[in-house]
Amino acid sequence: MSLDSEAGPSPPCSRDWFFPSPTFIHAPAASKTLTNPRRFSTASRISKSFISASRSPKPSPVNSFSTSTSSPRRDTKYAGIRRRVVFDRPTERLQKPDGLDNVSGTQSENVPDACDGIAVGKASSKMRFIAYPTDRIKFRWQMAFSVALLIIAFSSLLQKNLSFHSQVNDLRDQVVNLNMKLRACTLLDSMDDINSIPQQSDQLHNKSLKNSALIVSLALLSIPILVLKYVDYVSNSRRSTDNILEEVSLHKQLAYRVDVFLSVHPYAKPLALLVATLLLICLGGLALFGVTDDNLADCLWLSWTYVADSGNHANSEGMGPRLVSVSISFGGMLIFAMMLGLVSDSISEKLDSLRKGRSEVVEQNHTLILGWSDKLGSLLNQLSIANESLGGGIIVVMAERDKEEMELDIGKMEFDFKGTSVICRSGSPLILADLKKVSVSKARAIIILAEDGNADQSDARALRTVLSLTGVKEGLRGHIVVELSDLDNEVLVKLVGGDLVETVVAHDVIGRLMIQCARQPGLAQIWEDILGFENCEFYIKRWPQLDGMAFEDVLISFPDAIPCGIKAASHGGKIILNPDDSYILQEGDEVLVIAEDDDSYSPTTVPMVNEASLIHIYRPERKPMKILLCGWRRDIDDMIVVLDAFLAPESELWMFNEVAEKEREKKLIDGGLDVNRLVNISLVNREGNAVIRRHLESLPLESFDSILILADESVEDSAIQADSRSLATLLLIRDIQAKRLPYRETMVQQVYRGSFSQGSWIGEMQQASDKTVIISEILDPRTKNLLSMSKISDYVLSNELVSMALAMVAEDRQINDVLEELFAEEGNEMHIRQADLYLREGEELSFYEIVLRARQRREIVIGYRLGNTERAVINPPAKNEQRKWSIADVFVVIAEKE
């Protein structure tokens, strides 16, 4: 607090207060002596002694107090006094400036830097009092006023001192508090110093540990480099010390071991990548632990982040951490690149395996087809039709072809699979691993297709495949259906396969069908309907409600099927075709029927059927036939034997092919045929090319009852070439026949023969076909469809019938025994009978009545063909319905061979 406001204004300290006279002011001496009036102190003696007594450490309040003693109000009062003194005694005032000057100069020298205006005032007043007694009163007033001012100043200083004292006490309290805090801080610092001693030792230990970790990481990182660099040197030194000449260096041995490890173990590459990643994380963690202040666990985690994301090292600070983090990130990029390569290779290998059909088939109760041939399309079609009633099935095809090619060829097949899925796999049926890949042990049927080409090689491969199948450790749930090319190899295959094997000899089936069709035109269509699953086929099933019933009653107990035989349990499960009417069904016997599907028929109560007397009981006599065989095939000796069994005595068999007669006889003898032992036929050999017209014109083509055009052995390896040759032969024969027929006869034969005109060459060939039956063997089903539409051949037999037989035997192996008997030279076979053997013209009979009439001849009627239709009806509906029949109608029956 300033004292100037409390003390009030004081007169200024100047020379005018001591010397008010104007003359003095204007005197030269005065002007000379008062050149520096500021040397006088501005403070009074009283205030000076008070300041020294109070010992205040701050002189600033005193100075302010002294300065505040001068006031304009004081200047006004003393100004009037100076005027009165100046004008009363001017002479005396002229003598006193020197003394005053001396006094003032002395005082200014003794008390420097202080205001002595009050002392000077007293001296001047005393001199005036002595000189002038009348001024004593005025001096007293001045003294009183000065004392009052001193008192006021003292009180002000006292108050200021008290305030300073209180401030000092406050400051002392603050100092005490600060000292206490300082002591507390000093105590804490001493405790920290005590605690810092073990921490410093721990830091020293951690520092040494971090240095060790850094050294270890660098050493471990440099070991592989040193090994790779000096492995050859170590190998050479060992070889020189041991005096052993090693053929392979250590470097190559290590490379070989690594190669074997990666090749043998399936998970070697991912394992190696995992080990490399862990090593990188561990080495990186140790290096970071050596260059940073973090603990080992945090350094390992930080190392993993650098490996997983190479951008994390951007936050590193310091040269050491940055170098280590960049190294770890670089290693992480390499690991990531290797991982991408490994994953990409694995995905590519998996997709390539799926694309090439190397994956395992996880199926059961499926049909397995081993091999690939031109019969596969027809076989798949028949199996798909057979599985239609079950909602579809699974067919697995395995062949030594690319999976994509097989799927592409199957996709081009023009038929509906009817819900059946076809799975293709690439592999060899001779390798057990490939067989297990297609779940061979869980298949319900296994079909082995014969290869296109040489028959002996095809059968040899089929034999090896059967050996592979019998070697499956898990065993086989289903049976094996083997397609063979040569009948002579059937015995060997059955010997190897045992009871698991069912054989279908393709050439033998087609040959027997051709012979039957040559003897009975129209029979090929019957066989196509029965063998295929599109219409009616053979089924065997057990019906307990029929036990104790005679077979004659069983014949008319199925309104939707036709019974053909019995699987007798008393005969060891042997199938008996066309049994006697007196045969009584026993417990365990099964009934063989011809029906549309296995679930489309069931027995009912025996209907009431009128028994009609049989008109003709005699059997038609066999007439000699003249048959021409165009071409040569490897099993032609078997066909000659079958023809000799079927044909009537004095029949002729003409053989026209390019094989020389001497060589022809040799081949027949090598095949086991003795020409001298033929009973019913005589052989006539002609040599020539069947596709050359002049060679064909040398033959009496118009005189043959039947002509069989075979797929020649020289071109049987190529189905297209063989079909082209057969087609050319067929067209040439029909054209030659048409030219040789009399014109009048051709005119008479112009009836319901398609839409071709008489003058067209196809029309002439159709008219010529009424005179002679031509049966063509066509391997490609597409060619067969074209010939069937043109109707220039009676019928075309192709590999499609073989595929039908394979599919039927695959679905039920028992049917193979039925087919073998129907194709054999002895036993029962299919016949086409004229209607006049069972009825009169215009007679109304039900189909059941005709069946009973046929039983008197021990024949089973399975269908009919009306005179005004081209196709036969097998297993007709409404069997108990009356209808009018004609003599032009024919019936299809199963009867014993004539």
Based on the model shown, name its key terms:
elongated; alpha/beta; 898 residues; 52% helix; 13% strand; six-stranded parallel β-sheet
Structure description:
This protein is α/β, with parallel strands linked by helices. The protein is 52% helix and 13% strand. It has a 6-stranded parallel β-sheet, sandwiched between helices. Helix 18 runs parallel beside helix 19. The protein is elongated, with a radius of gyration of 68 Å. Residues 1-132 and 743-768 have low confidence and may be disordered.
What oligomeric state best describes the polypeptide chains here? single chain
Enumerate the strands of the largest sheet in spatial order, edge to edge or round the barrel. 3-2-1-4-5-6
Mean pLDDT: 76
Q: What is the first-to-last residue Cα distance?
A: 158 Å
Apparent shape: elongated
Largest sheet: 6 strands, parallel
Fraction of helical residues: 40-55%
SS content category: alpha/beta
Cα Rg:
68 Å
- Could you tell me the number of beta strands? 22
Q: Which residues sit in consecutive blocks of at least 5 with pLDDT less than 50? A: 1-132, 743-768
**Beta-strand content bin:** 5-15%
Number of helices: 32
Tell me briefly what this model is.
By secondary structure, the protein is of the alpha/beta class. The protein is built from 32 helices and 22 strands. The strands form five sheets. Strands 3-2-1-4-5-6 form a six-stranded parallel sheet, with helices on both faces. It has a six-stranded parallel sheet with strand order 13-12-11-14-15-16, sandwiched between helices.
